[in-house]
Amino acid sequence: MQKIFAKTFEYFLDLIFPIHCLGCGKNREELAARERWICPDCFLKIMPRGEQVCPKCKEASEGGRTHSFCRGDNFLDGLWAAVYYDEFFERAVHDFKFKFIKEISYPLSELMVRSILETQEFGEFQDIVLVNYAKDEEEGIYSDEQKNVKAETILIPVPLHPKRYAMRGFNQSFLLAKNIGEKFALPVREDILSRTKNTKPQSKTSNKEERYKNIESAFLCRKPDEVKGINIIVVDDICTTSATLNECAKELKRCGAKNVWGWVVARK
Ligand SMILES: [Zn+2]
Ligand SMILES: [Zn+2]
């Protein structure tokens, strides 16, 4: 009954606000809503990033690892971005976050998944991501038995402050992490890190220094025992200066996390 209601609701919503693909502008009514924001034709044209950069200096670095000379006050071990940042992704992420279109999380997280599976060179980040993921040689797919999850790696979405969460109604980073976690059999933990400072949005700050200052000491690790010795991947939508991810990493490292990586849709 609830399903019928949801379907009917979706139908009427569609009459009032028809969904147009963010790429080609077409309204592909034959597709499910979640596939229409980036239609399959446009989706397949998007190529995952060919190379990764250091989170600190944005210069090329193998597999996105932080250069040893960029460590200093940088606590991220590396950063993995699925695609190159362009106007298309700016619009997609904007509509996702500020027009509250949750369905955009599906194509975006699918791109994050593709960026791992379609990368030929396997590096440290893939090792951390694929820890619970076994390839089924015959089928070319990955077996469900591996979902017997070992918590060697966990996904932590960048938390929102409770006030911002109440306004938006969802955490966009959590939706991305949830889809990725299902695909790679990785636990998603929303209960470990919380945002104790209601900072102004990083996009409203004017320069790099302000971004770092704005986010300083904004996060608190509530369960230090559960991060000790664990590999952690902090998930976010877009990375600009990596100030937010770095602040999360700083707090998680303080509590004994082993490796902390950032994983985002796009790197600005
Ligand atoms: Zn399209
Ligand atoms: Zn660097």
Question: Which SSEs are present, and which pair or pack?
Answer:
Blueprint lengths: L1 H15 L16 H4 L3 H6 L32 E7 L2 H12 L6 H13 L6 H6 L5 E2 L4 E2 L10 E5 L4 H7 L3 H13 L8 E3 L12 H8 L3 E3 L9 E9 L3 H12 L5 E8 L1
Helix pairs in contact: 5-8
Bound molecules: zinc ion (2 copies).
Describe the fold and architecture.
It is a single chain. This protein has 268 residues and is of the alpha/beta class. The protein has two domains: 1-45, no CATH class; 53-267, no CATH class. Helices cover 36% and strands 15% of the residues. It has helices at residues 2-16, 33-36, 40-45, 87-98, 105-117, 124-129, 162-168, 172-184, 208-215, 243-254; strands at residues 78-84, 135-136, 141-142, 153-157, 193-195, 219-221, 231-239, 260-267. A four-stranded parallel beta sheet has the order 1-8-7-4. Helix 10 (243-254) links the parallel strand 7 and strand 8 (260-267). Helix 5 crosses helix 8. The radius of gyration is 19 Å and the shape is globular. The relative contact order is 0.14. Mean pLDDT is 88; it is low at 137-141. One zinc ion (ZN) binds at residues 54, 56-57, 59, 61, 67, 70. One zinc ion is lined by residues 21, 23-24, 26, 39, 41-42.
